[in-house]
Amino acid sequence: xxxxxxxxxxxxxxxxxxxxxxxxxxxxxxxxxxxxxxxxxxxxxxxxxxxxxxxxxxxxxxxxxxxxxxxxxxxxxxxxxxxxxxxxxxxxxxxxxxxxxxxxxxxxxxxxxxxxxxxxxxxxxxxxxxxxxxxxxxxxxxxxxxxxxxxxxxxxxxxxxxxxxxxxxxxxxxxxxxxxxxxxxxxxxxxxxxxxxxxxxxx
Length: 203
Fold this sequence. Notes:
- By secondary structure, the chain is mostly helical.
- It has one domain (2-198).
- It is built from nine helices and no strands.
């Protein structure tokens, strides 16, 4: 039951992540996501059969839940300021997850401190906070296709375009390296942020 709950929260959180990319692109002049009907929280518009269903189920048996929604596409040539636009669009995803973590984290802080006990809702909200902190931190890692790479590449001068091509070519391998080796180094920031936001320990 807990695994199912985690998967549902994960799917909702990655959908919010992708919709945020689309809304930011639309605000900056690119209507691609809106025209494709992606500016909605309707799961049917965003679910990727592999990333939203199969991978979360398989990884849940390994002790963690990982997955993704169908990426929102945007046309950089519709942006007035391409560099700034790409940066803001990339940043919108992790910021949406961080915002969800803060909103539900503050609810936990209020409910726990007010009632003196961890209520069922506070426990449910804690899962939302944890998953969204993980999504925000993980997506800020600067390797393609994660948002962190787009934030990094947005400031890279045009003459270093070959670096972009190399990073994108080996993106899947780099993500696998991050999951297997790098994540265990940066993951301690998750309980730190959880306690900072909620006021209680993750343990």
